[in-house]
Design brief:
It is found in: Cell membrane. It comes from Roseburia faecis. It is a peripheral membrane protein. One of its GO terms (molecular function) is CDP-glycerol glycerophosphotransferase activity. This protein has 370 residues and is an alpha/beta fold. It folds into 2 domains: 187 residues, 3-Layer(aba) Sandwich (Rossmann fold); 168 residues, Rossmann fold (3-Layer(aba) Sandwich), CATH 3.40.50. It is built from 13 helices and 13 strands. Strands 2-1-3-4-5-6 form a 6-stranded parallel sheet, sandwiched between helices. Helix 1 runs parallel beside helix 3. The longest helix is centred in the N-terminal third of the chain and has 23 residues.
Length: 370
């Protein structure tokens, strides 16, 4: 594993020398007005955040190119080959869609005819990221890793400032059009499919209340810090037979903590969950759309607050804040009784109001694709 500083210098060289060279080669050919690229370097298939738009394009006469590869596993030669291919295709594309950091897209002087849309994978705003924290992008990094965006999608106007600041983006390109992946939470058929999948895997959970622990990672994405999961077994015993506890770890943590992680993706667990237990994860904002109780288990909250890690006051969050493990079980069991629906509704309206079930339709109209 390359250490963080070495990775940054490798990225500087790739962004400023190697990738631009291959883009210039690709520019020999003209832009193809019907070429659409979906690109991602964290998954081998189109990520959930772009899946609905990808499926929409598949019904049209656009030429849809899927350039996705999980480059987090250490296959550096394969990852480089994938990214160089992207640069050659990028030079000819009319539209490029992303949903996460993707350095190649920022590594050239993009043609004006090409539209790059960042469909960021997280809703709301909470933990500082990108240029707002040195743990993500250090001060010595040369280059703008978010260069060339034409449009950045957010879940509400109240969140726009975090994208302007964190991505060093012009306010003019940050738009609260909503996140198309959240449209599914308004579809009864999707909710039923989630239930069917869950109970097929966990038939013993039928008739019980479902608690989902879905924490995020600490540190930076390339070198995540592992959080303590040792309390899970004890918590299960405390909750007793009335509850079924599911653990769903952030992708950056799954490789380090084996055994406990539920293989069903988080977005398909939320519709079957009665109480969400999380911390600083954006999954909290998705769960707002279901208007159900949240427990915020944050034993390290004092550290985060002391070190100015948030965009908002954490006490604004619509959930039961728990710092001590000894109080966690009681908070889960009584979460429904103390659930402040009005506070959650107001928070949802402020930070997720563009996620109303029509985000895909709005994006298609905004880009004048149909």
């Amino acid at each position: 594993m390359l250490n963080f500083k070495v990775k940054q210098f490798v990225k500087i060289i790739m962004q400023n020398i190697v990738f631009p060279f291959f883009y210039r080669i690709g520019k020999i050919a003209p832009v193809d007005d019907r070429l659409v690229i979906f690109a991602d370097s964290h998954h081998d298939d189109v990520p959930y955040s772009m899946e609905d738009l990808y499926q929409w394009f598949e019904t049209t006469d656009y030429k849809v190119l899927k350039l996705t590869k999980d480059c987090d596993g250490g296959n550096y030669a394969g990852g480089l080959k994938f990214m160089l291919r992207f640069m050659l295709c990028y030079a000819k594309a009319r539209y490029v869609f992303l949903c996460d950091n993707f350095l190649p897209a920022a590594s050239c002087n993009k043609r004006e005819e090409t539209t790059v849309v960042q469909m960021w994978h997280a809703g709301g705003m909470l933990k500082k990221y990108a240029y707002d924290t040195p743990r993500d992008i250090p001060a010595y990094y040369k280059g703008n890793v978010f260069k060339n965006y034409s449009l950045i999608l957010t879940s509400a106007e109240a969140c726009n400032r975090a994208y302007v600041s964190g991505m060093r983006a012009s306010p003019d390109i940050v738009k609260a059009l909503g996140l198309s992946r959240t449209d599914r939470f308004y579809q009864q058929r999707y909710k039923q499919l989630c239930e069917d999948e869950f109970y097929a895997m966990y038939p013993e959970a039928r008739g019980k209340k479902i608690a989902l622990w879905a924490p995020t990672f600490r540190g930076n994405a390339s070198q995540p810090e592992i959080i303590d999961c040792s309390f899970i077994g004890h918590l299960r015993k405390q909750l007793g037979n009335e509850w079924f506890l599911v653990v769903n770890l952030h992708p950056h943590m799954q490789k380090h903590l084996k055994g406990e992680h539920c293989p069903i993706p988080t977005e398909r667990l939320l519709p079957v969950t009665d109480v969400l237990i999380s911390d600083y994860s954006s999954v909290i904002y998705d769960y707002l759309l279901l208007m159900r109780p949240i427990v915020l288990y944050v034993p390290d909250l004092d550290y985060f607050e002391k070190n100015d890690q948030f965009y908002i006051d954490y006490n604004e969050m619509p959930g039961i804040i728990v710092k001590e493990e000894s109080k966690l079980c009681d908070a889960i069991v009584h979460a429904e009784e103390v659930f402040d629906r009005d506070k959650m509704q107001q928070f949802k309206e402020k930070y997720m109001n563009a996620c109303d079930g029509h985000a895909l339709e709005r994006l298609v109209d905004y880009l004048q694709l149909s």
